[in-house]
Amino acid sequence: MRKLIFASALLAFAPALWAKVTIDYAKEMDFGDVKTFQFKATDETAAKDPLLADSIVQMLKTKLKAAGLTEATANPDVYVTYHVLTKDTPVLNTTGFGYGGFGPGWGAWGGGLGSATTTVSTYTEDTLVIDAYRPSDNKLVWRGQGTTSWSDKPEKRDKQIQETLDDLSARWHKILRNQGE
């Protein structure tokens, strides 16, 4: 049951159908012993966008608490942090137009005339990575990540992040069920 609680807490963000979501964890870790967490900020967590950082931290803490974990100020069972990775991905767009052939007797022009233009545009893939570390040796024991293109609108972006966390949670619960919790 405690494994289920830990999983619910860590995995509550995710754009369910449109994000690529994965998790991995230390198979030897007994997540049944995890009852408390402490958020650990990294240098990058608030550097790029403090408002986004605050939003992610609050959503993450809320999910962990809703799953039954207690936030500790000292001696937690796990440290939890997050990272946001961005990658610009090029997309080739080709448009063309042409005329049909003029039939026999037009020689080389019988195949028609046309032209095509290719342009390059980019879109940004955003990956939210949630990590949990064992305090005794700083060993990474759990990682979940979701990749998608976040909206420029804060309310929509926050919903995407929340959905990513939800999807991560669902995937974690499935693994726990398969292991017999």
SSE blueprint and pairings:
Layout: H1 2-10, E1 13-14, E2 20-25, E3 36-39, H2 50-66, E4 70-71, E5 78-99, E6 113-134, E7 139-148, H3 154-179
Parallel strand pairs: 3-4, 3-5
Antiparallel strand pairs: 2-7, 5-6, 6-7
Helix pairs in contact: 1-2, 1-3, 2-3
Describe the protein's architecture and organization.
With 181 residues, this protein is α/β, with parallel strands linked by helices. It contains 3 helices and 7 strands; from the N terminus they run αβββαββββα. The chain has one domain: Double Stranded RNA Binding Domain, CATH 3.30.160. Helices cover 29% and strands 38% of the residues. Strands 2-7-6-5-3-4 form a 6-stranded mixed beta sheet, with helices on one face. Strand 6 (113-134) and strand 7 (139-148) form a beta hairpin. The model is unreliable at 11-17 (pLDDT under 50).
